[in-house]
Amino acid sequence: MNLVESQRTFHKIQLFKKILTLGSTLSTCGCSHFTSVSNSNRDNSISSSSSEQTLNNVAIFWDLDNKPPKSFPPYDAAVKLNKAAQRFGLVKYMIAYANRHAFSYVPPSVRSQRRDRKTLNELESVGIVQPDEPYTCGVCGRRFYTNERLVNHFKQIHEREQMKRLNQIESARGKKRVNMVAKYAMKMDKYRNEARNILTPKVGYGLADELKRAGFWIRTVSDKPQAADVALRREMVDMMDRRRVECLFLVSDDSGFSEILKEARLRCLKTVVVGDINDGALKRVADASFSWQEIMIGKAKEEAGKVVGKWKDQNVLKKLVWRYEPEKERKLYYNEVESEGSDMEWVSSGGDCDTLLGKENDGEWWELESRTNDVKRL
């Protein structure tokens, strides 16, 4: 009896294994009838959530001639601006236009810092002022007791090394050039990060380099008046015509862009303006507006969620609300009235309505009813 029972259990185990293998093969072939309801609901919820989380494409347009980051570091301002724009959607384009005067301009705050640094270097070289801690070179680690010696060391050694690397990369071709770029990548990044803090930019205060480091595409235009505005408007219109973005993020106080923003709203695009003029023409036209102070302190990033929520509610209400437009209704039904106009004119001129109804139904109403009854009996 034990042998028979063991054989039965063995057969049951084999049958169970076959069922499992059959279910796995059916599921791989696409016959997903064995999937549970919870799994299907979970897949549906994931697909619905992914469809709801589709973000709008955002493009940042920066008019550097009109709104340069004078009172803020360029890199920090660009990063804060990008983070604020990301709350409105996926930032795909970051474009800045300016002429060469905007890049050579030095703000008063940067000038005062340079003057203070120059006087401090003179006092350190004489020995009147001594730093609390020695100046350390971030590339090689050497220490100096005056900032002037650190700058001279950086220019004589590390700047020359950087120029040699760049010349080697420029002279190389093909795979050799790719290998050289990979070989010197870390050293070049280390040099750039340290040179940003030690060396003074030769032109301006490094606006173009800082914005490029933040991810902006910089375009220098001619020195003609309004050249940057014209180029920026052309770029915005091109983006709208090709339907690349759903939200325009403009950094400017120039009222000349108000027509572009109106055109964007007519094309059902969302518009956001960053500027310091509270009652400006751009802020009256745009869907949302922020100041530079709100961008830098992070208030714009917090308010962006509320603005996007209002936009979503407005889109839902537009689909639900029915509006009566008499002109549209009149145009819709005017053709039908025109087609029936000949009959109406005939009646208004004194014609007989019986002829319109036909001559088959001539007679009194009781006679017509009796005829219909006779017909039904037949």
How far from one another are the termini?
Answer: 90 Å
CATH C-level class of the domain at 57-103 and 211-320: Alpha Beta
Largest sheet data: 6 strands, parallel
In terms of structural class, how would the helical and strand content be classed? alpha/beta
CATH architecture field of the domain at 57-103 and 211-320 = 3-Layer(aba) Sandwich
Average pLDDT taken over every residue: 78
What can you tell me about this protein's structure?
It contains 17 helices and 8 strands. It is an alpha/beta fold and 378 residues long. Among the domains are: 157 residues, Rossmann fold; 85 residues, no CATH class. The strands form 2 sheets. It has a 6-stranded parallel sheet with strand order 5-2-1-6-7-8, with helices on both faces. Strands 3-4 form a two-stranded antiparallel sheet. The radius of gyration is 38 Å and the shape is extended. InterPro entries: NYN (IPR021139), Znf_C2H2_sf (IPR036236), Znf_C2H2_type (IPR013087).
